Every structure is written in C-alpha cells, then in structure tokens.
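Obj: model holo form, ligand = zinc ion.
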Amino acid sequence: MATCPLCNQQSDRWEAIRGFEIAQCRQCSHRFVAASLGVDHVASTYGDDYFCGGGAGYDDYLSQRNLLTARGQQFAEMVSRYTGKRGRVLDVGAAAGFLLSGWLAAGWSGLGVEPNQTMCQEGKAKGLDLRCGTFETADLDDVETIDCVSMVQVLSHFQSPRQAMERACSVLSPGGVLLIETWNRSSWIATISGKGWHEYSPPSVLHWFTPKCLDQLANTLGLEKVASKRSSRWINVGHAKSLLKHASQESKLYAVANQFARLLPDSLSLPYPGDDLFWALYRKAN
Ligand SMILES: [Zn+2]
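Output (holo structure tokens):
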C-alpha cells in the first residue's frame, strides 16, 4: 500500500473505516489514511461545522473556553518546569485561542495559528495575536524568538506530520521545545475498542500514533526527548456526549458509555477516564 509518511517504508492494509482505507507501516507500525486528500482538505474538514456541528468535531466549541484555558495554563506551567522559564509560545491549531489564553495567564507571551477564519477572528477580537491560515502557509516571517511550539491534539490532523514537525523545528529557537499531545493507539482503551475506537474518525483524523513511533519520528528530526506522560485532563460532559454519540455508530462499547453519559448534565466537568491520550516534550538542539 502507501509509503509510510513517518519513515518512508512500505505499509499493509489494516482496515477500512468510514470509507477510508487505513494502512499500517511494516517498519514503525504507524497507522494512517492511505490516500492523498485534496488541497481543499483543510477548508472542507475544518469549516465552521467542525466547531459546532457535532460528529467527530465539537457540538459547541466556544463552550469549552474555561476548560481549555485552564488546560493551556497547566501545559504552560508544566513546560516551564522543564525549561526553567516563561518564554514565548506558538500554539498551532489555536482555534479561538483558548489554550493560548491559558499560556498568557501563566506568564508566557505568544501567538497562535488557525485555519478556520471564524475561530481566528473570534480570538483576534479578544486581542490575541492569531494568524489565520494553515501552519504550512501562515506568514510567520516577523516572528523571532519561539521557546515552545505547542501542538495539542493537532498533529494527527496534518496530511504530513513530518512536514508539520519540520516546520515547528524551523520556527523554534535553538534549545526551544516542541510540545505534542495526541492519542495513543497502543493504549488499553484503543486496543479493546478495535476499529470502533472513537479516534478512528477519518477524514478529520488522518494518523494514529503510538508514543514509540512519535519518539522515532522526533528522533529522525534531531529532536531530543525531554519527557512524556499519559494526559490527565477534565472534559465537559456535553462534548463527551457528542463524541460518544458519533462513536456509537461503530462501537457497542461506546453505545453503552453513551447511555450512562446521557444521565449526566451537559454543563458538568469530569476527569477524563481513558488512558488513550498522552503528551511528549522534545527539545531542539542548541
Ligand atoms: Zn513507518
């Protein structure tokens, strides 16, 4: 099948999900959508519907403001513990800038890049430095020092994660760090859910990493691993219901979870119980 976008080796067919052929690399075991999506992929996938239409996206993204701002602050404080400073961050896939606001609240400065115009304008109206466009094409020529590039649940959406990480390396200052949070397909919950795992939702998600294959990719780009850990975070019940409803189409396990979630109020926030999300921090050489 298609060549692995991480290591360039051959792959085999794994499954077809929602009409998309998914391949698994023979060398690094990375799973990915084995098709090239058109140049309008970003515009067609991350239109306003992605942020308020439910499905694999969000039923009401703007209602996530408080949770995401708190999450941004947590990440900023965590990165500061490893780098010893509060510097300048570039948040990739910033949406309306909620995570970025958390970084700013923690004493960092910085900016974000976001392809969805509505979200980007929403953040700009709040006074944030957001650049509208894709990470590959956004104008960042005036940006000088960047101490951390943050990609929180973003990397699996790129057609080429390798190119996205190369771009991150090119904007990072020497000694700067790349923060990646993404889903772990080798986790317990992903394994028992099989092809019904909620993250198998092409075409918005195109790649399914393991911590090991992400480390291998970072290594080939000359990045040094600083730390990684299973993510602990809070989720909004309304958003969880929307995702469970979508995933229930493919999985009985999610259908049962959805029945329980329906008993809870949308406004409630709960600790996320899954083991399938992790973050990793990598440092660019001096
Ligand atoms: Zn590979």
